[in-house]
Amino acid sequence: AKQGGRGNVRFFEPQMDLELQARKALEYDLRQALLKDELELHYQPLIDLEAQKVSAVEALLRWRHPSRGLVSPGEFIPLAEETGMIISIGEWVLRTACQQALSWPGLRVAVNLSPVQFRHRELVDTVKQVLEDTGLEPGRLELEITESVLINDTEAALDILSALKGIGVHIAMDDFGTGYSSLGYLNSFPFDKIKIDKSFVTTLEDKVKSLAIVRSVIGLSESLSMTTTAEGVETMEQAMLLLGEGCKQVQGYFFGRPVPALEMTAFLGNWQGFTVL
Ligand code: C2E
Ligand code: CA
Ligand code: CA
Ligand code: CA
Q1: What pLDDT score does 1 carry?
Q2: Among 39, 112, 130, which residue has the most ligand 1 atoms within 8 Å of its CB, making it the best to mutate?
Q3: Closest Cα to residue 164, out of 197, 104, 223, 124?
Q4: Residue 3 pLDDT > 80, yes or no?
Q5: In sequence order, what are the residues at sequence separation of 6 or more whose Cβ sits closer than 8 angstroms to the Cβ of residue 70?
Q6: Stretch 109-119: mean pLDDT, rounded?
Q7: Over the stretch 26-63, which tens digit does the pLDDT of each residue have?
Q8: CA-based nearest residue to 31, from 15, 60, 10, 58
Q9: Ligand 4 center from residue 197 Cα (angstroms)
Q10: Top mutation candidate among 60, 71, 201 for ligand 1, by most atoms within 8 Å of CB
């Protein structure tokens, strides 16, 4: 039995394998994380290349675990999804990011939506409610979804996306090119933005194929009146290559790593553009 209402003591059956034990321990801790205020958002700048301006920030979730230190989302989001905890965690992320955006006038804030959240029947109401409660202008919120939400029930996905667009928020297709990408999706769904996955950006300079893919994604999204953001830009060379290809926006360690809100405020205050090499 675990927890058994006897304080914080946890018991594990000896036959439980180690992996499952570790998972259970993490799950137990994650259930407390929200209550104990252990979750925090870091923010990474999105740079408009032509204007050399920070025009948005992406909120990235972190878990400050009492003994493990800072845990990255890749390590606990899958668990949060499997257990349904992602619904309350996701709402916290949305609310915290919208609230925080109020102190950065003119900036848009991008929030990642898990496919589980996307399918949750209360998503649209939650988004509406959070915008109403915080008073953030809907156009300053951008929701990032991945291709996987579109594949199963295409019609339902379209309904949800239309309802979200109806509220006035922006929609970005995240990690483009990594999933079951169908170019047809781009035409059928109301995206404002395509985010080119960092795997293409990383290999931009030495893989002819990556450049070809990046070029065609930029061309296609332009012809469909969407903008493109390239993720994972780590060098000036990559940024300049992307600018040359017509990519409007970039995000990556070269311009700024994800940092806590206070540091982002300082970053924004110090921003002076960049020198083109
Ligand atoms: P993502 O949405 O694709 O976020 C971009 C990831 O790339 C982030 O990792 C970011 O720190 C990292 N990154 C940014 N610039 C660079 C770069 O120049 N080079 C490299 N190598 N990496 C870069 P992070 O923060 O570990 O997040 C991983 C994933 O976890 C995210 O991928 C997203 O799918 C998910 N995630 C993060 N926050 C949330 C959240 O609040 N809700 C949900 N549902 N998922 C989230
Ligand atoms: Ca994202
Ligand atoms: Ca991404
Ligand atoms: Ca990713």
Answers
A1: 41
A2: 112
A3: 124
A4: no
A5: 62, 63, 64
A6: 97
A7: 999 999 999 999 999 999 999 999 999 999 999 999 99
A8: 10
A9: 7
A10: 60
Distance CA 81, CA 181 (A): 22
Q: DSSP letters of 179-191? A: SS--HHHHHHS--
57 lines ligand 1 (CB under 6 A): no
Atom of ligand 1 nearest to the CA of 44: 14
Specify whether the CB–CB gap between 65 and 38 falls below 8 A.
Answer: yes
In this model, does residue 255 exceed pLDDT 70? Answer: yes
Give the SS3 label for residue 225. coil
> Whose alpha carbon is nearest atom 11 of ligand 1?
258
pLDDT of residue 12: 62
Scan for tokens 């989302």, then name that residue: 73
Rounded Cα distance between 231 and 56, Å, is 13
Q: Give the distance (Å) from ligand 4 centre to CA of residue 175.
A: 5
- Six token digits for residue 74: 């890749």
Chain mean position to CA 258: 12
pLDDT, position 177: 84
Average pLDDT of the segment spanning 165-190: 86
Q: Of the ligands numbered here, which is closest to the C-alpha atom of 201?
A: 1
Say if ligand 1 is within 6 A of residue 72 CB. Answer: yes
The type of residue at 208 is: V
Which pair of tokens denotes residue 101? Answer: 């955006």
- Pocket flag, ligand 1, residue 221 (CB < 6 Å): no
Q: How far is the CA of 158 from the centre of ligand 2 (A)?
A: 20
Kindly tell me if the per-residue pLDDT of 4 is higher than 50: no
Q: Return the residue whose CA atom lies nearest to atom 7 of ligand 1.
A: 232
